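Work through this:
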Amino acid sequence: QVQLVESGGGLVQAGGSLRLSCAASRRTISDYTMAWFRQAPGKDREFVARISWSGGATYYADSVKGRFTISRDNAKNTVYLQMNSLKPEDTALYYCAARYSDSSYYWGQGTQVTVSS
């Protein structure tokens, strides 16, 4: 079972940038679809971005399109989320997730992102 550890969260002012990292262990993620989700207080967990196993296809929620970029380095077994032009509404706990074929997602513990206005 793949283990995921997120890092890179923190407090940033609106308009600023952060880069989240998700380091995988126990299994190589080169065959896994990787994704980022987030959950704000009092809200359901929501999809943010997804990247195919090869990195050739990426998908984004409308709310982050043009501001966030998901990428992966299979040699480092790591996935990234570059977040630019951050807004207060981006404040949430960000989760990394891995999925092999049509299986369920494996989840990390999350990293907190707080954007001040």
About this structure: The mean pLDDT is 96. The chain is about 0% helix and 55% strand.
